[in-house]
Amino acid sequence: MRTQRWLLAVGLVLTCLASAAELPPVQWAGEPRLDLTGGLSARLVTPQTADDDLPAFQPINTLALGGYQTSDTLLQFKLAVQNTTSDPQTLWLYVEDPILNTLILRYDGTRFQVGESLPFNRRPLALNGYGFVMDFAPGEIKTIEGEGTGTLISLPLTLWQPEVLMAETQASGFRDILFFGIMLALTLFTLLFYSATRVRAYLAFGLFSLFLTLCLSLLFGYAQRFLWPQWPGFSAPMAAISLYAMIGFFAWMAPQMIGNRHQPAWLSQSMNWALGGLICLGLVFLLVSNRPLLMAWPVVWGLGAVPILTLMLIVELRHGSRRALRFSIAWSPMIMALLLLAGSTLGWIPFSQNLISLVLLGVVLSAVLFATIITLYLRESILKRQHLEQETLRFKTEQAAELKREVDRRTAELTESNRRLNLLALTDPLTGLPNRRHLDDFGDVAKRLSIETGKPLRVAIMDLDYFKSINDSLGHDVGDVVLNQLASLLSAECIDTPTEARLVGRVGGEEFSMISYGEHEAEFEQRLQRLRQTVATLEIPELQGKHITVSIGWAEADPSGSISGAFRRADQALYRAKESGRNQVVADRWQRSSTASRSLRTGTSGTATRSPSRPNDH
Questions:
Q1: Catalytic residue among 116, 316, 510, 556
Q2: Residues 182, 365 contacting (CB under 8 angstroms)
Q3: Which pLDDT belongs to residue 512?
Q4: Confidence class of residue 136 from pLDDT cuts 50, 70 and 90?
């Protein structure tokens, strides 16, 4: 906590000093992607740096950012960006490095604080890196200032058109999903082989593959995004555990794969002693709380182990070992990939998506080669023992068939389970109506169709009046009955036609929404009015003679606006309906006119006035 307070204090002082400097703006002229690193100036400071001895800002590529930094090192940076186009633009500022401990960014009077040490939902955009939305007026110059900390500090700063970055993210996401799927399948494959053969090399390789996958998921930002988004404290210990486990299992695996049970590989004992040194010195760094050395030590150890493994391979190859030849071929792509990754970690090679693709390609290629080698070894073993173990082979074949049937059965169960989960993900569990996610998906599709065909798109928000009093006086069970009755009425009103489509769903509590595409305005108004009247006359025995009413606000979507904008306007109209006495329908059209808002209770409609909030129903 003391270090964090110091970093924040120094960051504020440095920001004040930095803001006085004129920054040459990086000019954006409509490019899909603009690299901002060339216009980024920065400086490194530590707690020992006095205020009157602060270093001057300099281009970031001249700073010594390579390798591991101490936890109290602060990177202060600044940048100016200009929109040189004649149109207003909404762009995304993107920091590709997902393993910064903290990143503070300031522009337009807004301060953002994100990082690996903070929950994932603190990020403005749900990306593996750190994305920020920036709105530019024509010719506007924005000044960006901030600071960051981390064991590994890099700042690959880029400016993107949103749709281009989303397409790039989807492409890299597909690539990464394919990679992680292959690695997890390989892990399962080798562990199954270990269970069948009891060869420890297969166990070591399976665990190595598992921790390599975990390590890369941490490096690429997937672990914090999907595994523990609300527990950022897991990232640091899991990074150390996965790194040490990955290198340790590789060092345990290599001598066993090069040699065999009867003739250990040359220098295998030395490798075991070196592995003990890796663990012991890592524990020392852990006890003294030196995170930079704790994370750098296995990388340096791994680089030092490569010559030893190379020497072991050379000796075994000179002795004519086909086993060593095969595994040397299989290791080569992965070792080259991990050396590239280590070089990037130590700051020797720039971090980029091309580097990630090369690393993943090398690892996958080695994985395929390993799987091929393991398959060949299994085939050779079966051929050697076939004439002596026919009965055993038959028994194993039966086991394999049973295993296949079990896998097929589990796959079918998983498929059915996924189908049910997908249905639950799109359905409100109480009423059986579509939920907010389903409505969002339908609204996006309907909005695109409305733009393409020119047909109108309207949305409505319905809220039961004084519903809380029903829950308080009659109980939540009765409230659930009321909600289900209303859901049944809404479902009856949402029957599609060949030229019209509509969807109604529950968005929370006693609030429901309807999306209607292609329906004439008069029909849509009559539908809502009919629904309001039906609810008002609805007889529900559980209400003990009481009646319910519903207030409805609707809006027609602006062809040039968003569906969310139409929902906001419908919500404003709903507020007006509540404010005007409830049990009525109020419209808010996107066309601006002087016609006052009129309630559909009297057979008219109009534009609802804007109000900051909706009155509570009690």
A1: 510
A2: no
A3: 93
A4: very high
